[in-house]
Amino acid sequence: MTDFKYKICCMGAGYVGGPTMAIIAKNAPHIKVTVVDLNQTQIDKWNGDKLPIYEPGLDEIVKAARGKNLFFTTEIDKSIEEADMVFVSVNTPTKTNGIGAGRASNIKNCELCARTIAKVSKSSKIVVEKSTVPVRTAHAMNRVLNANTKDTGISFQILSNPEFLAEGTAVKDLMEPSRVLIGGNQDAGGLAAIQALVDVYANWVPHERILTTNLWSSELSKLVANAFLAQRISSINSISALTEKTGADVSEVANAIGMDPRIGAKFLQSSVGFGGSCFQKDILNLVYLCESFNLPEVAEYWQQVVTMNEYQKTRFATNMIKKMFNTVTGKRICVYGFAFKKDTGDVRETASGTIIKIMLDEAAKCAVWDPQVEREEMLTEFKYTHGIEHSNTPRLDDLVVTETDPYAAAKGAHAIAVMTEWDEFKTYDYQKIYDSMVKPAFIFDGRNILDHEALRKIGFEVYAIGKTVSENDPMTC
Ligand code: NAD
Ligand code: UGA
Fold first, then answer.
1. Whose CA is nearest to atom 12 of ligand 1?
2. 342 CA: nearest ligand 2 atom
3. pLDDT tens by residue, 464-475
4. Considering the entire predicted model, what is its pTM?
5. Of 187, 148, 163, 135, which is closest to residue 295 (Cα–Cα)?
6. Tens of pLDDT, residues 24-68
7. What is the pLDDT of residues 182-237, one digit of tens each?
8. Which residue lies with its CA nearest to atom 34 of ligand 1?
9. C-beta of residue 205 within 8 angstroms of C-beta of residue 213
10. Rounded distance, CA 72 to CA 62, Å?
């Protein structure tokens, strides 16, 4: 057994903890990296053949390092105890009850981690806040960690090291990060801790991409980064409503404005609405913080990003119904994509779920096809985000079916709704699909990825985000 000189433990084996630690293990073979979680099933999956998350390129990296310097276990206390540095990478969902419900982030898991670390540690450690948290959470973590260290010779240094990876591109984002942000106390102990974490990343990240700041700038930058990214999507989505009324084309507008280097081309893809576990959560958290600091105008400004996203989803579903002769009752709607974006199996807060919920409220039947999403995951998302479950929707298994291929999903459908931008959706035999559908056959492209002209030639009635069917016939989708 190798005698490792430096040991890292990561609490939380999720979408961030697993990939982040796998990349550290790959690039720093002299560091022992142990990822722990309360959830035995999750850990078993990380140790098994099929990893718990789908992320291109991750399998090979995990399998190459696993058992060498990368370990997954539920032995939490032992792994913390032997570590020099402990990352906290647990979920921080929006609070569902109590003060700030529906907006504030719940940092209970972070506090629990701090309490566990404080309880089991027999030596000093650096604790790294990797989760996305409200600004000044490090202060609370620090107090919990150091509450009982007097006269023990043990001390804890807290760092903020938010993660900027996006799902579907996590491996690339981690291997070649735009920047690594490390915030810490600006005293001798804090600066030494910052340096220790810089040394970990310096194994593969160029020094000029490692930024160090004070704790609060680091914590806040994470929320602001997500708010700015989501704001761009809501901005272009707001314009999509206008282009549909005017005969302009949202893709052409995005291209025209994005060529200005001051604006930039990225994150201007108009869509049915952003999803994912973080954008909405983090903006609501920012809004709540602003309200807490008595900045109502600032809070209202950022709230509008979420409001616009809700509007876009509802607008899309409403127009589907309108175009299908104002009724979808009893109609089969084929849904292409349930993941919140391509190249991931993650379904948290997916726009697809909202559209299906609206279709179910109108008594339609949905046939869902997604290349990566398991039915169980879909049902979990329905339950937690939309309150739909067998107990209140007895015919759920009949109303929402999951198909194992795109052709079966479309067969007998009145419409196809493209909800995720999976590349493979562009490659299907749409003539074959058209022939198997009820006529008129509709396609509602919520991602603007299909060849609309080719589909119209086949005979489909096609509606897309931010585009008009012809100059004389605004589609108002
Ligand atoms: P996740 O739900 O996938 O994983 C969190 C894991 O933490 C779960 O497996 C859970 O069982 C475990 N956990 C909870 N409490 C624990 C405890 N006390 N001890 C040990 N394990 C515990 O969450 P995620 O998507 O990895 O997100 C984690 C954090 O990172 C969040 O704050 C999120 O906002 C942030 N973030 C996420 C992404 C992303 O792409 N998903 C990107 C950047 C930042
Ligand atoms: C996002 C950020 O991009 C990451 O930097 C951040 O670390 C992460 O949130 C987080 O904190 O969790 P992620 O949610 O994984 O990453 O994926 P994105 O690529 O940002 O997409 C988010 C949503 O916006 C998806 O539903 C996507 O389809 C949608 N989107 C994205 C658009 O509708 N249009 C675009 O132009 C870009």
1. 12
2. 28
3. 999 987 544 544
4. 0.96
5. 135
6. 999 999 999 999 999 999 999 999 999 999 999 999 999 999 999
7. 999 999 999 999 999 999 999 999 999 999 999 999 999 999 999 999 999 999 99
8. 132
9. no
10. 10
Alpha-carbon torsion (288, 294, 296, 302), positive or negative: negative
Element (H, E) at 121: none
Least confident of 1-5, 116-120, 253-257, 282-286: 1-5
CA quadruple 7, 13, 14, 18: dihedral, nearest 10: 50
Same fold, 6-205 and 240-464: yes
pLDDT (average), residues 275-284: 96
> Into which CATH architecture does domain 240-464 fall?
3-Layer(aba) Sandwich (3.40)
Task: Return the percent helix, strand and coil in the chain, to nearest 5.
Answer: 45, 15, 40
Instruction: Give CATH superfamily name and number for 6-205.
Output: NAD(P)-binding Rossmann-like Domain (3.40.50.720)
Question: Of the listed 110, 278, 290, 366, which one is catalytic?
Answer: 278
What single letter denotes the amino acid at residue 119? K
- Per domain, the residue ranges of the chain are 6-205, 240-464
